[in-house]
């Protein structure tokens, strides 16, 4: 797998996010102004883009990792965990040591296995239950 980072949203990342969040999960407000200021990661299998995420600094000095999406046919192969580790490494290189995720509640167990701990209560994002999680890097 190859991990590449971008200062603008690549079309391939937008395509993966649309496929996963809009087409599969029914989210409507997938793209927002945060995209213009975030670091975007694309994961490639050879030349094929297979996964993406974005991350950006918070006011408290940490980084928020979000829009984590893996194409259906590549799920269950550890790509999400590897992508998180790559994002965390880049965040450390940027001088921060705390990462946050606003996770879908159904994915909480996955993030706990990656070292993220829930804090605060649940809330809704487009009607889907989400929970805030954080990890010291």
Secondary-structure blueprint of this entry?
Layout: E1 2-6, H1 11-24, E2 39-45, E3 48-57, E4 63-70, H2 79-93, E5 98-104, H3 108-113, E6 117-125, E7 128-136
Parallel strand pairs: 4-5
Antiparallel strand pairs: 1-2, 2-3, 3-4, 5-7, 6-7
Structural descriptors:
3 helices; Aminopeptidase; alpha+beta; 26% helix; globular; 137 residues
Textual characterization of the structure:
With 137 residues, this protein is an alpha+beta fold. The chain has one domain: Gcn5-related N-acetyltransferase (GNAT) (Aminopeptidase). Helices cover 26% and strands 40% of the residues. It contains 3 helices and 7 strands, in the order E-H-E-E-E-H-E-H-E-E. It has helices at 11-24, 79-93, 108-113; strands spanning 2-6, 39-45, 48-57, 63-70, 98-104, 117-125, 128-136. It has a 7-stranded mixed β-sheet. The longest helix has 15 residues, at 79-93. The model has no long low-confidence stretch (mean pLDDT 95).
Secondary-structure class: alpha+beta
Number of helices: 3
Tertiary shape: globular
* Low-pLDDT stretches: none
Count of beta strands: 7
Q: Return the domain count.
A: 1
N-C termini distance: 23 Å
Report the CATH topology name: Aminopeptidase
Query: What is the C-alpha radius of gyration, as a whole number of Å?
Result: 14 Å
Give the % helix. Answer: 25-40%
CATH top level assignment: Alpha Beta
Approximately how much beta-strand content do the residues carry? Answer: 35-45%
Mean pLDDT: 95
The succession of helices and strands, N to C, reads: EHEEEHEHEE
CATH architecture, please?
3-Layer(aba) Sandwich
Q: Give the biggest beta sheet.
A: 7 strands, mixed
Strand order in the sheet with the most strands: 1-2-3-4-5-7-6
CATH superfamily: Gcn5-related N-acetyltransferase (GNAT)
């Amino acid at each position: 797998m190859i991990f590449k980072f971008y200062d603008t949203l690549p079309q391939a990342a937008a395509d993966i996010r649309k496929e996963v969040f809009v087409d599969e999960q029914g989210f409507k407000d997938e793209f927002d102004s945060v995209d213009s200021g975030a670091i975007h990661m694309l994961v490639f299998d050879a030349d094929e883009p297979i996964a993406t995420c974005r991350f950006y600094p918070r006011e408290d000095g940490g980084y928020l990792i979000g829009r984590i999406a893996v194409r259906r046919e590549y799920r269950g192969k550890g790509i999400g965990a590897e992508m998180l580790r790559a994002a965390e490494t880049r965040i450390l290189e940027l001088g921060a040591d705390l990462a946050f995720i606003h996770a879908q509640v159904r994915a909480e167990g996955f993030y706990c296995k990656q070292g993220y701990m829930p804090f605060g209560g649940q809330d809704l994002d487009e009607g889907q239950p989400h929970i805030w999680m954080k990890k010291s890097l």
